[in-house]
Write a structure and sequence with these properties.
The chain has 266 residues and is of the alpha+beta class. It has helices at residues 26-39, 52-58, 63-75, 94-101, 128-134, 173-177, 183-191, 209-215, 256-259; strands at 79-82, 86-89, 104-105, 115-125, 141-151, 154-164, 197-206, 222-232, 236-245, 251-252. It has a 6-stranded antiparallel β-sheet. Strand 8 (222-232) and strand 9 (236-245) form a beta hairpin. Helix 1 (26-39) packs across helix 3. The two termini are 35 Å apart. The relative contact order is 0.13.
């Protein structure tokens, strides 16, 4: 990229900064340019981005403007600051999921890392709802994964995950089962797909037969249902997840004031 230009040859003015006449603040234009560079793989997960002074010169903005854009990306946990070292592209992993993605706690509000247990892998076709939410065609190939999460050894969450096969072209059951970290880390490390935000809807529900069996409940038992869509850069949907949660001894807890814009995974 040339100094002062976003990925793909767009200047900051083109995306709403500087003298474009648009109301978008210049720092937002810088943020958009950095996000575009991240989406294009300019900096990989775990890598340090260039120093702020260098980036400010690169985008032809003040240090203050550049820093505000970086601050917003840090608040969203897309970037991570390490005091005295630099700013890095966030990596999905157990530590990040504990505080940013997984919101099931015990009665005292304590969190622990869930222990995943593979429960199923199948190929299918997107129905109308899945197609609309994933931004794919009705009938497009999908992959459906079932995953059980244990807390303190007890089955607590039963997940049904739906992803578009085109986004994960060589994904097999064996490859998924062989992953050595979280699902979102797997997406990131094997496919270059970085989940940067999720949207969730919650409701009281009853356990279906499959979820009830996995969770050790009677069919029709009261549960919490969580419907999530996970997104990568530019709000491109990556994954649908339906979580059935046994809340007899657990709570869903999200402290937005403490976590900023955090939102959930495993």
């Amino acid at each position: 990229m040339t100094p002062g230009r976003a990925q793909g040859g767009r200047s900051l003015a083109d995306i709403g900064g500087g003298g474009s006449g648009l109301a978008t603040p210049r720092w937002r234009a810088v943020k958009a340019a950095i996000t575009a560079a991240l989406a294009a793989g300019e900096w990989k997960p775990g890598e340090a981005i260039p120093a702020e002074a260098r980036l400010a010169d690169h985008y032809a903005v003040s240090i203050g403007t550049l820093r505000k854009a970086i601050d917003d990306l840090v608040d969203e946990q897309i970037l991570l600051r390490r005091q005295g070292i630099g700013t890095f592209v966030a990596v999905h992993g157990p530590a990040r999921n504990r505080f940013h993605f997984f919101h099931i706690v015990d009665a005292e509000g304590r969190r622990e890392l869930p222990q995943p247990q593979f429960a199923g892998f199948a190929r299918g076709r997107a129905d109308a709802d899945e197609a609309a939410r994933l931004g794919i065609d009705v009938g497009a190939r999908t992959i459906r994964i079932h995953n059980l999460l244990r807390l303190s050894g007890e089955p607590t969450v039963f997940d049904t995950i739906v992803i578009g096969a085109a986004m994960f072209p060589d994904l097999t059951e064996a490859r998924f089962r062989a992953r050595d970290s979280t699902i979102y880390h797997f997406y990131q490390s094997h496919y270059g797909i970085n989940v940067v935000r999720t949207h969730e809807r919650l409701r009281a529900g009853v356990a279906g037969r499959r979820a009830a069996k996995a969770l050790g409940l009677e069919p029709g038992a009261a549960v919490l249902e969580v419907f999530r869509t996970a997104y990568t850069y530019h709000d491109v949907p990556v994954e649908l997840r339906h979580s059935v949660v046994d809340t007899r001894e657990r709570f869903y807890e999200a402290d937005r004031g403490r976590e900023g814009r955090a939102a959930p995974s495993a």
